[in-house]
Specification:
Strand content: 15-25%
Protein name: L-lysine 2,3-aminomutase
Keywords: 4Fe-4S, Iron, Iron-sulfur, Isomerase, Metal-binding, Pyridoxal phosphate, S-adenosyl-L-methionine
GO molecular function, one term: 4 iron, 4 sulfur cluster binding
Number of helices: 12
Cofactor: pyridoxal 5'-phosphate; [4Fe-4S] cluster
CATH topology of the largest domain: TIM Barrel
Bound molecules: pyridoxal-5'-phosphate, iron/sulfur cluster
CATH architecture of the largest domain: Alpha-Beta Barrel
Shape: globular
Family: Belongs to the radical SAM superfamily. KamA family.
Number of strands: 10
Oligomer: single chain
């Protein structure tokens, strides 16, 4: 009998690519991991057209046995996604009309957003991109040339925003290729990265990444995306520490989500925990009205009341700005 010898350990246990590949993609498996098998009867067919994906480290922050866990609700496909909801559309933020070059969205003065990648480590059920053809729109690979040429040529741009999808899904050498392409664009003074990876897969903030970030001759801003304090464990706090050591200013944006964080105590705890990790709350977004996400919506009056309640209990710098994205506006619209 031939027994296979164990494969040599080529990857450390914390290699982020391996953790990415090992993400849970089967809703039944996710429910089984949490002891919630009974909920399987209420899963929508075909994940309601938007695949489930969630890293195991994020699953570990969920409360077993709790069908209302705020982290679970953000990733679990629900039958409610299939219910028609007037006003909830496929292109909820007018992205398809804001293309300045292939992979570049330019909606606001001085800032251009580069769709650097089509993929995410986690698929958030409320996400506006659940129907957006980002997979075809990514500025990656050969098409980067066009996007970079556009950014170099427009001297009105002082900030380049890497977004997606999740830009940190790209390898660090790929990111370096991108910033090398901006080296001869002196008008670009700031690089902003919008990413949920430091929260859902903090192992992504590895030494190679931090060396790239700290070596950039640009001001650096990293905007995280956390919606609930339970997302922020010690691993996330450590990743935030590494980002700050690399010279990044850390901000967070959240989406206001019914059943997840539409509660003043939860939002206050989120702000407090962010600050402990060296992160300032930036935006609290009203949900983009995307098809399949209506069950997460919180009314504007209730949203304003929640932020008022935050103002009453937190220092001003821990109160995020409540905004909505409105197609055609010159910036995010304050509520
Ligand atoms: C949200 C967004 C920005 C950034 O807006 P800020 O208010 O500066 O955070 C830039 N470009 C696009 C296309 C956006 O959607
Ligand atoms: S773009 Fe952000 S909100 Fe949307 S699925 Fe990816 S990580 Fe989640």
């Amino acid at each position: 009998m031939i027994t296979a010898s164990p494969a040599p350990a080529q990857l450390s246990p914390a290699d982020w690519r391996q953790l990415w590949r090992e993400a849970v993609t089967d809703a039944r498996e996710l429910l089984a991991l949490l002891g919630l098998e009974a909920l399987a009867a209420r899963l929508p067919p075909d994940d309601a057209g938007f695949a489930l994906r969630v890293p195991r480290g994020f699953v570990a922050r969920m409360r077993p046995g709790d069908p209302h866990d705020p982290l679970l609700l953000q990733v679990l496909p629900q039958l409610a996604e299939l219910e028609p909801a007037p006003g909830f559309v496929r292109d909820a933020v007018g992205d398809l009309g804001a293309r300045a070059a292939h992979g570049v969205l330019q909606k606001y003065a001085g800032r251009a957003l580069l769709i650097a990648s089509g993929s995410c480590a986690v698929n958030c059920r409320y996400c506006f991109r659940r129907h957006f053809p980002y997979a075809e729109e990514i500025a990656a690979a050969a098409r980067w040339r066009e996007a970079l040429a556009h950014l170099r040529a427009d001297a009105s741009l002082s900030e380049v925003i890497l977004s997606g999808g999740d830009p940190l899904s790209l390898s660090t050498p790929k990111l370096a290729e991108l910033t090398d392409g901006l080296a001869d664009a002196p008008h670009v003074r700031r690089l902003r990265i919008h990413s949920r990876l430091p929260v859902v897969l903090p192992e992504r903030v590895d030494d190679e990444f931090c060396a790239w970030l700290s070596g950039l001759g640009l001001r650096k801003v990293v905007v995280l995306h956390a919606n609930h304090p339970a997302e922020l464990d010690a691993g996330v706090a450590a990743a935030c520490g590494r980002l700050r050591e690399a010279g990044a200013t850390l901000l967070n944006q959240s989406v206001l989500l019914r059943g997840v964080n539409d509660d003043a105590a939860v939002l206050a705890a989120l702000s407090e925990r962010l600050f402990e990790a060296g992160v300032l709350p930036y935006y609290l977004h009203q949900l983009d009205r995307v098809e399949g996400a209506a069950h997460f919506e919180v009314g504007d009056d209730r949203a304003r009341a929640l932020v008022e309640a935050l103002r009453a209990r937190l220092p001003g710098y821990l109160v995020p700005r409540l905004v909505r994205e409105v197609a055609g506006d010159a910036g995010k619209r304050p509520l």
